[in-house]
Amino acid sequence: MTAYAIAHLRPGDPHDDIVTYMETIQATMEPFGGRFAVHGATHRTLEGNWPGAVVVVAFPDMGRAAAWYESDAYQEILPLRTRHMDGDVILVEGVPDGYDAQVTASATRSRMLARRV
Fold this sequence. Notes:
Blueprint: E1 3-9, H1 16-29, E2 35-38, E3 53-59, H2 62-70, H3 72-82, E4 87-93, H4 101-116
Antiparallel strand pairs: 1-3, 1-4, 2-3
Helix pairs in contact: 1-3
C-alpha cells in the first residue's frame, strides 16, 4: 500500500545547503521507489495556520518509505536542510484501493453502540 513522507517546511533564508539538498534528494529516493507527489506547489490554507511549504513524497509502501528516510544517503544530506529550515516530517500509510469512508464510519458507529449496551 502506498505510503507518503509528508513535510511541512517553514520558510528559511535562502542558503547554498538548501539548494544542494534539493539537487541531491531525488537520487536518495529512487532506490526506494520514491517520487515527488507535491513539491514547491502553491497551497491554500483552509483551516488553521500553515506558514511555509508542503512536500509529499510517495513510496510503494511504508517499509520503503522508512528505509529511505533511515538510509545513509538521505541521512548524509538531511543536515543540509535541518540546519537552515525548520519543519515537521511524518510517514503515513495511504488507504487501499476502493477505500470507502462510509464503511469506516459504519464500523465506528457499531463499536460505539456496542459500548453503550
